[in-house]
Write a structure and sequence with these properties.
The chain is α+β, with helices and mostly antiparallel strands. 31% of the residues lie in helices and 33% in strands. Helix 2 packs parallel to helix 4. It comes from Brevibacillus panacihumi.
Length: 221
Amino acid sequence: MKYKSVFDIIGPIMVGPSSSHTAGAARIGRVARKLLGRQPKRAEITFYGSFAKTYQGHGSDVATVAGILDFDTFDLRLKDSLTIAQNEGMEVILQTSDVRTEHPNTARIRLSDEKETIEIVGVSIGGGKIEVLEINGFSCQLGFDSPTLLVLHEDRFGMIAAVAKVLTQQRINVGLMEVSRHDRGSRALMALETDAVVSEQVMEEIRNIPHIFDVSLLALG
């Protein structure tokens, strides 16, 4: 039996009535923000299941937008996030969907500006914890509780070994790894949860590996 700590049970410090609908929603929003790397010009948020039915009463809308603004779950500005976003020129589109999803607390977030668009699907699983199930069309199952290295690369032989070699040389331990691809031989996304934050120098070394398209590090802490 796996025992949980008291912090897993009571969830994080947060503003709002529900860890699932507020803290979890804010964390999903922050993942999207971190992936884009800056404040977007436009945020399209689609709620499914329980989120869709109760997002206004439980504050999932303001929490998600707060996360996109890079506010933490305990930030007192969370409750004013919609107004702050408007004042900062960020267009927010909130919508719901009747499409059935595997988890009731599901949100799809699409962030964009003049340079880039990113899209994720995340679920709030309770106690402020989340799982991201999709990143730009790549399937995954990531909680982002640890620093997570995301490597976009060509789907070909030797890519995993090449990235692992760099991390091994730097004595960086990997706790979890997932690889997802759209089609054989196309692009693939490698996600590696590490025990320590990967430095920019190490990331640059990985970027220099042939057939690597992009490297980013996501750490919510």
